[in-house]
């Protein structure tokens, strides 16, 4: 009987991300991490991608990780006549296409060699993937790409009577959540995002566990409540496994962009903690009027800044120039203390730079975890989706401040005076900086040899290895 480590087959893990950089990046990082622990990895890539950034990052990833297998999964063109969908969001449309196409994946997975030990699926494909995994008799885990706090709301959605809520949502064992923090689509059961959420959350109970890019010290109360099983009365969630903050995957030196080298050289010339970084993620495009008010605010703040701009939701369609967005003369006035760029940047390179002293962020969860990992204070400006809930997590943890009066993105025009005042307040708050450094240290400890995230990941891998040994025996 085989009973030694020499006879253990490495676990074979398939990972299935959904559309959008916010969903892809955690999967790339998790794939690289699992591969570094002697697991055989197959990354399933739905194609074509919605954004150019997704395509570029996949190319870079596989060229730098040739030992990780790529399973191409072509998605059939969307037929709106046969499958009507009440959204024009290209990422939501792709989520729907992926879910409908998943039965086509069954023969591709069943023919993999060695056989799969487990599948890790994006939560946006949970309903269809749970059926597929059940059909193939493969255990599956959900990867939830937001905070534990938002998971507590998301999982509670089927049992909430939102029409009867006046001010707060009551979730057992957790502080009340302001009604104003709920994504507006949740109040419309016919909205694509809401109906899609409701259909997927019901399948969570079939998963063996749920991976979250967070860490115990950052969301201790919520993680404990979720795993105590008292948050939901109508459904038992699988065990929540915090494995954050996920580290960026390594790339070959040749993959570094010339643009990246340029902005890092500029940051090298700035004083420590003097630069405010401004970015609202890969899916957010503000109005030209709001962009110019932000520019006015940065000018008024007196702070050096590094600003990532977007002119449209999908990067392939973003053809507006920086000068047109910012107005003639702005960058000439600001050239001594500001940089504005368009397109994808390696955000962790920026946040890890000693010149960065603060981050004006939409509070997409990947951005929150990157800020936490590097101890960078955040000025939260939530724009849609889970971001108000995430902003509350940031504020509660002491990592940042939340400009609640600005509302959701596009709800009102936030004037330059307001932006400038808040940026100055964040950049001059020494207490916030100290707490940021403490959180950065807690994030690093989570990945020490005895850290909470390291321990959780190793327990998962060891369980798979022991199951493989039992099969061989």
TrEMBL record:
Its GO biological process annotations read: flavonoid biosynthetic process; glycoside biosynthetic process
Question: Cross-referenced Pfam families, in alphabetical order?
Answer: UDPGT
Broadest EC class?
A: transferase
Print the keywords alphabetically: Flavonoid biosynthesis, Glycosyltransferase, Transferase
Query: Under which EC number(s) is this enzyme classified?
Result: 2.4.1.-
Q: Its Gene Ontology molecular function terms? A: UDP-glucosyltransferase activity
InterPro entries, per this entry? UDP-glycosyltransf_plant, UDP_glucos_trans, UDP_glycos_trans_CS
Q: Does the keyword ATP-binding apply?
A: no
Keyword Kinase assigned: no
Q: Which family does it belong to?
A: Belongs to the UDP-glycosyltransferase family.
Instruction: Please state what the protein is called.
Output: Glycosyltransferase
What organism does the UniProt record list as the source?
Answer: Rhododendron simsii
* Lineage of the species this protein comes from: Eukaryota, Viridiplantae, Streptophyta, Embryophyta, Tracheophyta
């Amino acid at each position: 009987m085989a009973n030694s480590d020499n006879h253990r087959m490495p676990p074979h893990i398939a990972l299935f991300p959904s559309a959008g950089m916010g969903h892809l990046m955690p999967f790339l990082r998790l794939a690289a991490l699992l591969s570094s622990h002697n697991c055989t990895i197959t990354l399933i890539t739905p194609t074509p991608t919605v954004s150019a950034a997704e395509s570029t990052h996949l190319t870079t990833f596989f060229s730098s990780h040739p030992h990780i297998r790529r399973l191409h999964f072509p998605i059939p063109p969307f037929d709106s006549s046969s499958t009507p969908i009440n959204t024009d969001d290209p990422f939501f449309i792709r989520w729907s296409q992926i879910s409908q196409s998943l039965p086509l994946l069954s023969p591709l997975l069943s023919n993999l060699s060695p056989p799969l030990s487990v599948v890790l699926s994006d939560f946006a494909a949970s309903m269809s993937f749970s059926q597929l995994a059940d059909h193939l008799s493969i255990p599956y885990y959900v990867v939830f790409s937001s905070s534990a706090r938002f998971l507590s709301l998301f999982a509670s959605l089927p049992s909430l009577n939102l029409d009867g809520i006046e001010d707060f949502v009551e979730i057992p064992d957790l502080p009340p959540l302001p009604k104003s923090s709920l994504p507006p689509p949740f109040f419309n059961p016919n909205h694509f995002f809401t109906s899609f959420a409701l259909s997927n959350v019901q399948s969570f109970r079939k998963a063996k566990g749920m991976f979250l890019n967070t860490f115990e010290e950052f969301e201790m109360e919520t993680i404990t409540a979720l795993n105590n099983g008292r948050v939901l009365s109508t459904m038992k969630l699988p065990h929540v496994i915090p494995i954050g903050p996920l580290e960026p995957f390594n790339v070959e030196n040749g993959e570094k962009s010339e643009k990246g080298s340029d902005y890092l050289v500029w940051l090298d010339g700035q004083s420590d903690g003097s630069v405010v970084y401004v970015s609202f993620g890969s899916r957010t495009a503000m109005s030209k009027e709001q962009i110019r008010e932000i520019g006015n605010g940065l000018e008024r703040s007196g702070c050096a800044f590094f600003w990532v701009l977007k002119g449209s939701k999908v990067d392939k369609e973003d053809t507006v120039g920086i000068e047109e967005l910012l107005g003639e003369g702005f960058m000439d006035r600001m050239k001594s203390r500001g940089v504005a760029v368009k397109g994808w940047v390696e955000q962790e390179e920026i946040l890890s730079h000693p010149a960065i002293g603060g981050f004006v962020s939409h509070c997409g969860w990947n951005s929150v975890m990157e800020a936490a990992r590097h101890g960078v204070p955040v000025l939260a400006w939530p724009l849609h989706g889970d971001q108000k809930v995430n902003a509350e997590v940031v504020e509660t943890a002491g990592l940042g401040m939340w400009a609640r009066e600005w509302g959701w993105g596009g709800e009102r025009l936030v004037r330059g005076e307001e932006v400038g005042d808040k940026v100055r307040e964040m950049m001059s708050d020494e207490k916030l900086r100290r707490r940021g450094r403490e959180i950065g240290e807690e994030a690093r400890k989570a990945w020490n040899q005895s850290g909470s995230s390291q321990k959780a990941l190793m327990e998962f891998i060891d369980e798979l290895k022991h199951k493989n040994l039992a099969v061989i025996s």
